Amino acid sequence: TKWVYSFGDGRAEGRASDRNLLGGKGANLAEMCSLGLPVPPGFTITTEVCTYYYSNERSYPAELTAQVEAALEEMGKIADRKFGDPAKLLLVSVRSGARASMPGMMDTVLNLGLNDETVEALAKDSGDARFAWDSYRRFIQMYGNVVLNIDHDIFEEILSDEKGRLGYELDTEFTADEWREVVALYKEKVEAEIDRPFPQDPREQLWGAIGAVFSSWMNPRAMTYRRLHDIPASWGTAVNVQAMVFGNMGETSATGVAFTRNPSTGEKALYGEFLVNAQGEDVVAGIRTPQSLTERARLESGSDKPSLEKVMPEAFATFVQVADKLEAHYRDMQDLEFTIERGKLWMLQTRSGKRTTRAALKIAVDMANEGLITHEEAVCRIDPASLDQLLHPTLDPDAPRDIVGTGLPASPGAATGQIVFSPDEAEELKSHGVKTILVRVETSPEDIHGMHAAEGILTTRGGMTSHAAVVARGMGKPCVSGAGALRVDYKAGTMLALGRTFKKGDIITIDGASGQILAGRVPMREPSLSGDFSIIMEWADEIRRMKVRANAETPLDARTARKFGAEGIGLCRTEHMFFNDERILAMREMILSDKEEQRRMALAKLLPMQRADFIELFEIMAGLPVTIRLLDPPLHEFLPKTEEEINEVAQAMGVSADKLKERTEELHEFNPMLGNRGCRLAISYPEIAEMQARAIFEAAVAAAKSTGQPVIPEVMVPLVGVASELTYVKKIIDDVAKEVLAESGAELDYLVGTMIELPRAALTADTIAKEAEFFSFGTNDLTQTTFGISRDDAGPFLETYRKKGVIEQDPFISLDVDGVGALVKIAAEKGRSTREGIKLGICGEHGGDPASISFCETVGLDYVSCSPFRVPIARLSAAQAAC
Ligand code: PEP
Ligand code: MG
């Protein structure tokens, strides 16, 4: 087996596409070499050696030593040097390099091969004894730390003691002899720590470093990083051994990092920093202030330190050529590391550069316009989830944060305001122009007015699909939910967080992107939508197959949805339309009446309000499809709770408060999520469905007239489990339609369909499709009922599950493809087997999640529907799924 791949002198055994075998760094070093770029010769030990190492009790394959020796020999030939030979000194660097970049997994070891003898040779070779002894002490420090596990601070202490003794401020003040002293002290310390002298044999040093890289793959830091970024342990890391070049050989040497375009704005201009007479880690360490690469950047920054362009014009010119070549070759913005040794440029690394969302958009659009990439590639280069950053204000990343708790990142964006504990207070303060954060144990539909009025919402209970989370996302308001460590005391008007007490009126900030709760005000960055954003969106629309609709019920939401490019409403949750003072009373009268006649009277009050709502929605959506769902939630959500509310309803209904209380108790349910809700309500109280159907059809007729465009309402029945439930409710709807059309003399097309949100519905979808003209997958309830996990109580234990690695993803956020997804697939197939071309969509929260959208494409759904602020994310994800 080939375990070692060499590169150097314009040739390489590997290439960029060998990333899995050689790791990112190794593969790109090989590629740069083959492109004829100046790369110090070296070799890569493959990731397969890492795998072997761990499956064979941390030992190496038998052929490895010989292959490494041969590669060292080859490297020496190219460099005209010999590893371990003081007469033809060859020093090397040893670096890790996994498939995916894993910053900080293992530090680099530089200057390897130095010992008491070769340090003299380096002094002679370079003609600079100070440089040689400085390099040796750096090596002992790095090797001691990374390979011998000696605490970094132990070396730093010795160094600062020496500085104190000599009265120096900076490392650069040390003379050669003084560095020699430091080396002696370091070596003494190492011996004391490890009970043997610092290794002098270069080969022992090399194998020590190789072993340290492979061992670092299983250190806790690396394991945590892998878990957070879904990187499998089986991938392993490669090891790169490369001839040293020195950026610290005096004033004609330098080292630096660069991006081929500006990583924060995306502007097409070389961007980077360098230090004269320095070694790689000095740039990162931040002890000396680095200088700009270009004159232009120097002028812009107002720095008086000269740019690389000025101090080393020739090396700079070569570097610009190399950077251009690499960007054109990889067809992406590159992040580069380089060293200039006595005027000669060497490339040490290239990789795709990390960038802000704004930069990502600009770079993708520019590169497509430059003809470097296609529109499809441009669209695929943007991380859909990152668009959230553009649509909401975010916390200034540089601002200090006083974190007092964390909850679930339920709805993105950041908000600051005074704490209020009741929705009415939020509304009241808003009318005086005061910004608030509504803090609740949990929210219910009754709190909606306060949620609207507040800048952000914080709850101590509930998960990612809790009422607060769903409604806040719909409104585009920041929300942190399920912050279980917080204690809210409504009576006392206090919130206890991390031992601190916050009172009503105190200022807090919440960050719905991270789930953080912070004391006081934190500076924000305002969202900015650039022209590049719309261009990428246009391109995405050309590519995608699935339509994107929005979940919306208020005119404001519907307008926002259209602004973001929604192609209809996929879910109008009508229950959300009943919560304002005027309507809730009529609603309560309706629920609490025990006679049909009385119920009908209350419903008659609600009819005109519902009709007006729907007319407005239809008008805003101007001919686009609108799916309206019949009343879904358990009735108890609407019941009066306080004494005051009970009296108010009793009075309106002309019954006694006691009688009303009795009725309220009758309606109590132990498990409302599985109780009398959804289509069960329509079957128990057909008058409700009648009223809603009438409101829908009368509104459709009216809106068709006012807009001059046909309106095709899609009436949706929730929580169907048995086909006959749908048959029953559909008949009510069809009968009302006939009546309305007869009364108005108008013509109207409409569809009646159902949510698929119970396993039984999915499994019998062929029978259900006999009645249903469309299916909309309600994956919130489908996840709840498939897993048997309560969507409102799951937050805390699912978080524990994630931490303990029992599950990787919260299934309420990203669709569980194996279980819930299997049901969706079965239902889609069965539905189509009965009714070819049946319209299929998804309206659970997953409709706005990129991974879930990609699954929807594989099942061939016709559309996804998500909250208005996620519409751009869904458009982009749908395009990527179609690529
Ligand atoms: C669902 O269950 O996925 C759904 C969209 O309905 P709701 O969240 O209103 O129950
Ligand atoms: Mg549901």
From TrEMBL:
Residues 532-882 form the PEP-utilising enzyme C-terminal domain. The keyword Kinase applies. Pfam families: PEP-utilizers, PEP-utilizers_C, PPDK_N. The active site is at 467 (tele-phosphohistidine intermediate), 843 (proton donor). Residues 20-56, 59-296, 314-369 form the Pyruvate phosphate dikinase AMP/ATP-binding domain. Residues 436-515 form the PEP-utilising enzyme mobile domain. InterPro entries: ATP_grasp_subdomain_1, PEP-util_enz_mobile_dom, PEP_util_AS, PEP_util_C, PEP_util_CS, Phosphohistidine_dom_sf, PPDK_AMP/ATP-bd, Pyruvate_phosphate_dikinase. Its EC number is 2.7.9.1. Gene3D superfamilies: 1.20.80.30, ATP-grasp fold, A domain (3.30.1490.20), ATP-grasp fold, B domain (3.30.470.20), Phosphoenolpyruvate-binding domains (3.20.20.60), Phosphohistidine domain (3.50.30.10), Pyruvate Phosphate Dikinase, domain 2 (1.10.189.10). Mg(2+) binds at residues 757, 781. NCBIfam families: PRK05878.1 (NF004531), pyru_phos_dikin (TIGR01828). Belongs to the PEP-utilizing enzyme family. This is Pyruvate, phosphate dikinase. It comes from Nitratireductor aestuarii.
